[in-house]
Amino acid sequence: MISPMLQAVPRPSPTRDMGLVRPQPVTGLILTGGGARAAYQVGVLAAIAQLRRDAGVTANPFPIISGTSAGAINASTLACHADDFDGAVDGLLHLWQGLHVENIYRADAFEAVKSGARWLSMLSLGWAIARWRRSRPKSLLDNSPLRDLLGTYLSMDRIETMLDGGHLRALALTGSSYTSGQHVTFFQTHHHVVPWLREQRMAVQARLTLSHLMASSAIPFIFPAELLDLEGMPEWFGDGSMRQSAPISPAVHLGAERVLVIGAGRMKEPEGRRIRATDEHPSMAQIAGHALSNIFLDALSVDVERLRRINRTLALLSRETRASTALRPIELLVIAPSRRLDDLAAEHQASLPHSVRAMLRAFGVSGKGNAMSGSALVSYLLFEPSFINELINLGMSDTLAKRAEVQRFFGWPARAPQIDPALLRRSRSAGFAASV
Question: What is the pTM of this model?
Answer without folding.
Answer: 0.84
